[in-house]
Amino acid sequence: MNKKFVEAFGKANKGMRPNFMAVGGYDGMRVIYEALRATKGNGGGDALLAAMKGQIFESPRGPMFIDAQTRDVVHNMYLRKVERKEGQLHNVEFDVIKDVKDPGKAK
After folding, report:
1. Which of 27, 41, 70, 99 is the least buried, fewest Cβ under 10 Å from its Cβ?
2. CATH architecture for the domain at 2-101
């Protein structure tokens, strides 16, 4: 999914590579879309919020879910190093920490 996202983003944006803001926007719109679909277009705040809780999906950044209790995003954190590839600097993953929750809310 990440490779498809990067390719489509580049085509739509004159060769630019997406950053965390682009992926965050994509994920946010996906959550809203699925909530609207689940509520059959009912845009009321309570109905949409309920439809967002517990969503599980594949993002360009890997598997994610919306914690049904806290409404926080839970996803993998990828450890990376910077390498030059094809004349450009790229983040290259070398490890992963799975299902990371907001550390500021950890008990």
Report:
1. 41
2. 3-Layer(aba) Sandwich (3.40)
